[in-house]
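Help: read this over?
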Amino acid sequence: MTNTTALLHWRPVPLPEPKTLEGYYICLEPLDAQRQGDDFWITLHGPKADPDLWDFLPYGPFSSREAFNTWLTGHAASTDPLFFAVIDSRSGQAQGLLSLMSIVPEHGSIEIGHVIFGRAMQRTPRATEAVYLLAREAFALGYRRLEWKCDDRNERSRRAAKRFGFSYEGLFRQHRVVKNQSRNTAWFSLLDKEWPECRQAFETWLSPDNFDAHSNQQQRLKVLRMHYRR
């Protein structure tokens, strides 16, 4: 009987590096608290900020700019999680941040996490492209498994994971205590063998040709992924 789980000639993969990743609508830049701090303070705490943004995160909202700067500076200095700022290509404004984290090069496992998108980029091609660029980078480095985890009550994050092509793997009950609440954590993953069809779907969906003059999508990402799966 053939062992279908055997992994031949596996070698540990490189660590991700803090570098700029270019897209159509955004670029991802290494998080820089000094250079991007003003944008983030306005985007995440200003009058147009999303009041629900911090509900399922282990930190925030922040009561002062000083506390926020300390938090942002700590994130910028981290290598795991490795944080990237989402920079809108038109305005040059930092509108969100996210990270590569739980990095295990010897097993080829990595996670996209700490996803914090300001209201201006939620449910836009910029948000989708930010996730695509990090996924593309992870698989280009040779990682076999890309993870997505969230509070099981976080419906927005659960929907996003499925839309991006991650498969639900199960629930870790009483996994964490976050803001003095017991958290059940939903686990999702995307594997290297699944990435080619997901990548095609992402790239077709993100193409400017997929949007009309009013920025309405012509084809849905889920439908495109099903198309390339055939």
